[in-house]
Specification:
Elements: H1 2-25, H2 29-34, H3 39-57, H4 59-65
């Protein structure tokens, strides 16, 4: 499962960088590489979305697998 965690993290970085470019430079790198609305671009967008859902839904399990202590709120 750690490999899936890494793949999901990489996809989230790709998605984050792409959205950063859209926000800063009005340039969609995925669409630029694969063509706007192309099947490949849609596959990349779908994989990024699935990676985000995976990370969000399995955060606690990922923390346990990687032996990461969850952050605690300071009072």
């Amino acid at each position: 499962m750690k490999a899936l965690d890494v793949v999901a993290a990489v996809l989230l970085v790709v998605g984050g960088l792409n959205w950063g470019l859209v926000g800063l430079a009005n340039f969609d790198l995925v669409a630029g590489l694969f063509g706007a609305g192309s099947i490949l671009a849609r596959v990349v967008y779908t994989l990024v979305g699935l990676a985000a859902a995976y990370q969000a839904l399995s955060l606690k399990a990922i923390q346990r697998r990687w032996r990461v202590q969850p952050a605690t709120a300071c009072a």
